[in-house]
Amino acid sequence: MATTIQISGQLHQELAKRKLFDRESYEEVIWDILEDTQELSEQTKKEIAEARKEVKEGRVKPLEQIKKELGL
Predict the structure, then answer these.
(1) For every one of its 72 residues, what pLDDT tens digit does the chain have, with 9 covering 90 and above?
(2) Given 3-state DSSP classes, what are the helix, strand and coil percentages for the chain, each rounded to the nearest 5?
């Protein structure tokens, strides 16, 4: 169900600044803002911890090295 809300001109300008592209709706902008404030899931936290461990252990390669290996 769609609804209409009233916002100040200042908030409208702030939301417009946050658009990633001209045709992005204000609803999409608001969802992006809400997503940024939500807690990470346990699965995401686990994956971040594993990635940090891999970096510490040197099990990652710099992008430049991968490009060189692939001939890019």
Answers:
(1) 888 999 999 999 999 999 999 999 999 999 999 998 899 999 999 999 999 999 999 999 999 999 999 999
(2) 60, 0, 40
